[in-house]
Amino acid sequence: MDSKSRFGHLEMEGKEGAAPTAEKGPAYAPGDYLRQAFELELNGSYEDVLRLYARALGRDPHLEEAWVGQLRCLLAREEFHEAQVWARKASEYLPRSAQIVALEAVALARDGRQQEGLTRSDDALKLSGQGPLVWFARAWVHGKARADMAERCIDKALEQAAGDPFPRVEAALLYLHLGKHGLALQHLQAVTAQRPALARPWYLMGLCMERLGMRRQAVAALAEAAGRAPANRRYRDALVELQRGGGVAGWLRRYLGL
Question: What distances in angstroms separate CA 31 from CA 38, 202, 245, one per listed residue?
Fold first, then answer.
């Protein structure tokens, strides 16, 4: 599916490089859309989140947080080609954004284009404004092939991270990818203690617990996720599968390429 059809609600006004326009709706300020999107993103409601980020960009196409949010969602959905397309589009508006370049690097690496991903990660590190996301991206690029280096990048990212849940969830995802389920669980438990209403951390915690042999606790965590985001079919399906006696390795594979 091409980039224009994937985001029918983010019309590019014809020619390549034109500013995006928001779909019709209440004329909220960009910050209002971002606040709604942040919460929904941590509940795994990616289609709704993508619409909100698109609406924010319709008000201000130079809004870095909205481009970054869109790219995070596409990566979470494993739409790696789309993420590359939209990273290039974002770079037309924000050519000096280290975060956008870093997320393009992740998309390339997870799409099997490891060397290109490493090159783009190098580019991101050369730009100003390096933050946690740039180092998390570096960890994804190193991946399991360079697990020690990936863990050092995670540590560096967490040193710079504020107290919001995004960095801990990202660290947990990386540790799951690296097979460090105990470390992933520590971060997810901290997030669910801090922000228990967010569904996605509960879901990831359930997958992590199942891999650690904590089956009863995994069912409880997935039930929390499904109860807090009842519209999310992925959460419901994972819960039902585990309750039936199956495993959830397939969910981790879809999430992380494991």
Answer: 11, 27, 44
